[in-house]
Design goal:
single chain, about 210 residues, alpha+beta, 2 domains, 11 strands
């Protein structure tokens, strides 16, 4: 048997990992195509659902943010920040360490003085005058030549556990509660399980505290 479902760029576990978490017989051979398609659609849907619930990208992604400037700092909104790769001001590229620095404690880009890099300055004011490109998230995906997801690295264990628990919950309720055509779970049974909320409680509190 084989599945036609490709795991998305937000998937936090591989096909092998989810089978090993749910089944004693981890081979695809003894599963129907519909079962496999449903299971892997669960991975895509739940991965996106968990990301939405915690308000953070789990798999690293590139974020582009614009700011009107006028202050010493530009506070970034998508956490966790891995790397600030580019900052431009009125279309002019700024140099890291000379024109700006990233402050991980404040989760902000700080403008430096053009004449004295050790001193602070102010980003030029203007509608969307400043553009910041950065990488945010936790884990990374590895894919083979056919774009099949082969491994996911550096994803915190609580995210993976929450994924397994939620998918187990959906699987036990049966395929009738899932629409592969629409790619999402349907009805009240699709609500995030209480156990998953408890696993991710500290993540949610952390995001709300930093954003407050």
């Amino acid at each position: 048997m084989s599945s036609t479902v490709q795991l998305s760029t937000k998937a936090v576990v591989t096909k092998t990992e989810i089978r090993e978490a749910l089944f004693t017989d981890t081979s695809e051979v003894n599963r129907t195509d519909d079962e496999l398609n449903t299971l892997y659609n669960f991975v895509n849907w739940v991965s996106e659902g968990i990301e939405s619930f915690v308000g953070q990208p789990i798999i690293q992604k590139t974020v582009v943010e614009y700011n009107d400037g006028g202050g010493e700092y530009i506070f970034l909104t998508t956490l966790p920040v891995v790397l600030v790769s580019a900052v431009t001001e009125n279309g002019i590229a700024l140099v890291s360490g000379t024109d700006y620095i990233y402050d991980p404690d404040l989760v902000a880009v700080r403008r430096l003085s053009e004449n004295d890099p050790l001193s602070a300055s102010i980003f030029k004011a203007g509608t969307m005058a400043t553009r910041v490109v950065y990488t945010a998230g936790y884990g990374t995906q590895v894919r083979d030549g056919s774009n099949e997801l082969t491994s996911v690295t550096s994803v915190p264990e609580d995210f993976k556990l929450a994924t397994y628990v939620w998918i187990q919950n959906l699987w036990e309720k049966g395929p009738a509660n899932y629409s592969p055509e629409q790619g999402n779970a349907t009805g009240s049974r699709a609500a995030i399980p209480y156990a998953v909320k408890e696993i991710l409680r500290n993540r949610v509190l952390q995001v709300h505290w930093i954003g407050s």
